């Protein structure tokens, strides 16, 4: 899942981003609304977490821009204003959810995960392919009932492949969806991560390389 976090409280934004990365999300961070508009113009995000009061373009303006687009990005607004009128106004901008500060981080994660499942196309909370079961909410993976200890990046790559439902996912798409904006497009990170993921999933292999195209989840080889 690709997430944008935009908040002018730098410590809060960085802390939220680091926490979401522990749940295998690829997170880009910016500290003002202009930076958020720039990033949504370049990248496609599943979820945007926006502070309403930011310098430059406000979170409200960023939310309106996303609502007018066809990107399918779900928006979670963060604000210190907890009144009913404030919440109603925020949702009226096109936001999908609203969370007031201060908040419990566990609740933020749950809300982001829920919004991610509602991104286009909708994704169920538990994915199962060929004996592999990935539970997004619990952040667990099993194969034939055997728990697997995956790194956050391995989990993210597996999630993207399983979301594709057997379709081929290119290395470029994996890099875009499972890594953040600082990923080097010429790195071999995707190949190395797929290799270690295959080892942890065990035999027979369910991740197949499609020459000159990418990778897919399929029947065991």
Automatic annotation (TrEMBL):
Keyword Phosphoprotein: yes
Source organism superkingdom: Bacteria
Domain OmpR/PhoB-type: 124-219
DNA-binding region: 124-219
Domain Response regulatory: 2-116
MF-aspect GO terms: phosphorelay response regulator activity; transcription cis-regulatory region binding
An example Gene Ontology biological process: regulation of DNA-templated transcription
Annotated keywords: DNA-binding, Phosphoprotein
Coiled-coil regions listed: none
One GO cellular component term: protein-DNA complex
CDD domains: trans_reg_C
Modified sites of kind 4-aspartylphosphate: 51
Gene3D superfamilies: 3.40.50.2300, 6.10.250.690, Winged helix-like DNA-binding domain superfamily/Winged helix DNA-binding domain (1.10.10.10)
PANTHER family reported for this sequence: REGULATOR OF RPOS, TRANSCRIPTIONAL REGULATORY PROTEIN CUTR
The protein, known as: DNA-binding response regulator, OmpR family, contains REC and winged-helix (WHTH) domain
């Amino acid at each position: 899942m690709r997430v944008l976090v935009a908040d002018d409280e730098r410590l809060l934004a960085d802390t939220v981003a680091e926490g979401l990365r522990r749940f295998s999300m690829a997170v880009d961070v910016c500290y003002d609304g202009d930076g958020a508009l720039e990033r949504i113009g370049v990248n496609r995000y599943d979820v945007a977490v926006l502070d309403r009061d930011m310098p430059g373009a406000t979170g409200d303006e960023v939310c309106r821009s996303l609502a007018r687009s066809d990107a399918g990005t779900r928006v979670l607004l963060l604000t210190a204003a907890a009144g009913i009128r404030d919440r109603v106004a925020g949702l009226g901008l096109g936001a999908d959810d609203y969370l007031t500060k201060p908040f419990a981080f566990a609740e933020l994660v749950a809300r982001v995960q829920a919004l991610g499942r509602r991104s286009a196309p909708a994704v169920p909370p538990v994915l199962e392919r060929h004996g592999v079961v990935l539970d997004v909410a619990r952040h667990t993976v099993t194969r034939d009932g055997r728990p697997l200890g995956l790194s956050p990046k391995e989990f993210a790559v597996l999630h993207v492949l399983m979301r594709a439902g057997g379709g081929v996912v290119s290395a470029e798409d994996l890099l875009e969806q499972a890594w953040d904006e600082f990923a080097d497009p010429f790195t071999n990170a995707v190949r190395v991560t797929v290799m270690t993921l295959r080892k942890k999933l065990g035999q027979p292999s369910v991740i197949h390389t499609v020459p000159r195209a990418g990778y897919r989840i399929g029947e065991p080889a």
